[in-house]
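testing teh design pipeline on a random one, pls ignore if ur not involved
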């Protein structure tokens, strides 16, 4: 190097050493940032891996959107076992049988709406646990159609939602069921 380059490096001011208190703070902040990043990553991966939705209103909206768009994978992903039996028309079904059945049923049909024409307005969400009167009433209907269907269900939610399809709006109550940590479309209620 030339003399100019050497003298620049020689005259560079030194940084003062970091105090132990500042080092502790920096370590603490880094640990929190890493923890938050890891938690967000885990939540993101779980959301990608598991079927269902994280909230009852999301389960209803995603199922309804999939049904309106003839999105078979979406319908299956957000359907409870009750709804899968309703779609299939027989008491015994699995995702493969249902997928084959729906693919044949929708073959040659195009959805009436574009995704941009579909929207939702949540009006209310009420959740109920085992032992609540509403829970027991919903589970009676569920168990009539699905043998031992309510065994894995932790909670139910009655979601009042308006579905906007183009220029049409329909407001009704829906039942969402919680299995494990995820929510699924149960069925639409009258009224």
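output:
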């Amino acid at each position: 190097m030339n003399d100019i380059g050497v003298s620049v490096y020689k005259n560079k001011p030194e940084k003062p050493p970091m105090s132990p208190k500042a080092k502790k703070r920096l370590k603490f902040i880094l640990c929190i940032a890493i923890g938050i990043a890891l938690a967000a990553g885990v939540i993101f991966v779980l959301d990608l891996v598991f079927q269902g939705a994280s909230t009852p209103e999301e389960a209803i909206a995603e199922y309804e959107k999939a049904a309106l768009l003839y999105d078979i994978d979406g319908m299956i992903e957000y359907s409870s076992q009750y709804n899968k039996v309703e779609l299939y028309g027989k008491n015994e079904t699995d995702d493969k049988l249902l997928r084959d059945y729906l693919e044949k049923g929708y073959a040659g049909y195009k959805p009436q709406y574009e995704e941009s024409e579909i929207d939702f307005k949540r009006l209310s969400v009420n959740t109920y646990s085992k032992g609540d009167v509403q829970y027991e009433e919903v589970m009676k209907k569920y168990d009539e159609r699905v043998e031992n269907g309510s065994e894995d269900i932790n909670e139910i939610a009655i979601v009042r939602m308006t579905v906007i399809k183009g220029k049409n709006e329909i407001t009704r109550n829906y039942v969402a069921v919680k299995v494990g940590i995820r929510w699924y479309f149960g069925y639409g209620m009258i009224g």
